[in-house]
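step=encode ok
step=design start
structure_in=
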C-alpha cells in the first residue's frame, strides 16, 4: 500500500517537472522571437521591380497662365558690329537678264523727255558739204562729233544759212547715205543772205551724220542740227 502511494507520488512529481520544463521552453521561445523583432537590421537590401506598370493619360488638362509679366529688354553699353571675310561679288547680265535701265523723273529731263547730256547741237561750216560736224557744248566749246556706237541721232530741228548767194530761191537738202531725208526752199534776200529753217515734230532718226547741199550748184551753206541721242535698240 505504501509502495503504491509512493509510486503514484513519484509519477505526479515527474509530470510536474515535465510541465515546468515545457512551460519554460515556450517562454524562452517567445522571448527570443520578440528580441529578434525589435532589433534593427544592419545590412541594406536592393529591391528589383520586374514588371513596371504603364501609365496612360487620356486627356491632358488645359493650362492657362494668368498675369504674365511684361518683359522689357534694353541695350546695356555700346554695341560694335564688325564683318570679316566679306566675299567677292560679281554681277553678270545675260540676255535673259537685261541690264536694268533708269527711267528719269520729270525733274531730271528736259521738255523733250531726255537727259540734258543726251541733247546735241551740231554745226557744219559752209563750203564743206556738211562733211564734218562739230558739237557745241554747254560752255560754247566745239569738238568734232560722230554718233557713238550703239546710238542713233534723232534730228528735231535743222537750219541752213549763208551770205554769199545772189538774190533768188534755192533748194537745200540733207542726205544720209546718198538718200535725201530733208529738203526745202530757201529764199535769198537782196543782201545775199540765205536762211532756211525746219522744225520736225516726229524727228528724223539717223545712224550716220548727214551731208548737206544746194540743188543745181556746187555750193553748200553752213548748217545747224538740233536733236538728241538714244540707244539704237
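sequence_out=
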Amino acid at each position: 500500500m505504501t509502495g503504491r502511494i509512493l509510486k503514484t507520488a513519484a509519477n505526479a512529481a515527474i509530470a510536474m517537472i515535465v510541465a515546468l520544463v515545457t512551460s519554460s521552453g515556450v517562454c524562452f521561445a517567445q522571448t527570443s522571437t520578440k528580441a529578434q523583432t525589435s532589433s534593427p537590421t544592419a545590412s541594406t537590401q536592393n529591391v528589383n521591380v520586374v514588371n513596371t506598370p504603364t501609365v496612360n493619360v487620356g486627356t491632358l488638362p488645359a493650362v492657362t497662365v494668368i498675369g504674365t509679366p511684361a518683359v522689357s529688354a534694353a541695350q546695356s553699353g555700346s554695341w560694335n558690329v564688325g564683318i570679316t571675310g566679306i566675299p567677292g561679288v560679281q554681277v553678270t547680265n545675260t540676255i535673259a537678264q537685261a541690264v536694268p535701265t533708269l527711267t528719269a523723273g520729270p525733274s531730271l529731263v528736259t521738255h523733250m523727255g531726255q537727259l540734258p547730256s543726251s541733247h546735241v547741237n551740231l554745226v557744219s561750216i559752209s563750203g564743206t558739204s556738211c562733211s564734218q560736224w562739230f558739237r557745241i557744248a554747254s560752255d560754247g566749246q566745239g569738238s568734232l562729233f560722230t554718233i557713238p556706237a550703239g546710238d542713233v541721232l534723232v534730228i528735231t530741228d535743222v537750219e541752213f544759212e549763208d551770205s554769199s548767194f545772189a538774190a533768188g530761191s534755192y533748194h537745200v537738202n540733207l542726205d544720209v547715205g546718198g538718200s535725201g531725208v530733208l529738203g526745202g526752199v530757201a529764199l535769198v534776200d537782196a543782201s545775199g543772205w540765205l536762211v532756211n529753217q525746219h522744225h520736225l515734230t516726229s524727228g528724223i532718226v539717223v545712224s550716220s551724220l548727214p551731208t548737206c547741199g544746194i540743188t543745181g550748184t556746187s555750193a553748200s551753206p553752213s548748217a545747224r542740227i538740233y536733236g538728241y541721242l538714244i540707244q539704237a535698240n
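step=design ok
step=annotate ok -> The chain has one helix and nine strands.
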